[in-house]
Design brief:
By secondary structure, this protein is an all-alpha fold. Helix content is 65%, strand content 0%. It contains 10 helices and no strands. α3 packs parallel to α6.
Length: 265
Amino acid sequence: MSEQGGAPERDPAELGATVAALTEDDIAPARRRQLLTRLVGQARTRGLGDLFKPRAAVRWMVDTVTDIAPHVPVRDLATLRRHFEGLDDEALAERLVRNAARATAGVGAAGGGVAAVEWTVTPTLLSAPVLLAAETVAVVAVELKLIGELHEIYGVPLPTGRSQRAVALVHAWATQRGVNPMMPGAGIGAVLGTAARRELRDTLLRRFGRNLTTLGPFLTGAAVASFLNRRATRSLGDQVRGDLRRKRLALPGPPRNLPGPSDQP
């Protein structure tokens, strides 16, 4: 169904496919720029027309993140172990955080590349808010995937069902913490509530505001965006890892990858 006022209907699956591709490891820079350009095009046709109003951009980002979250691919523990053979839990978690930080840095650099093309034509700044909103959504998708896979590594269960899992991941991203496995009632209803939506909006607004500082002609903003994205993803990964370590210790059953009696001094 189309939105009121004649706005085009959003296709979460179409957006989700683009964003899922952006979360993959080791994407070539040219491919990342292509995907981000596609995401910018999808943003332009999905209600982000009031370009000079940050509130409109943030509303679009909140709606888009909740739309694409169920489509973010999260590998289970068995798949992660196949992809990264020989790593224990902590080494595997560190590798995932490193890869995600590289991916979001790559999104920042790709945004600079897209901007370089956009800025060669007039009007110069018309595309900037759309590009920044699209870049922010892409970064959030990479970080949602990271949070989900860290939960797999640390054995802290996520809700079952794609929608409920997505909602839990969005909430975990907005609060910069792991999902609380002792709160089975924190499902769709909780995340659709006003307070959880406000948390997501406020965190997105901080990210979007940070990205505004990277605006510059051609590639002058790309290095800054790359650095800031890498640093923010690293910080998020470290916070979530610390929180999941504490949650794992509180879970029933024997902990994994902790020193056994023969390892004690």
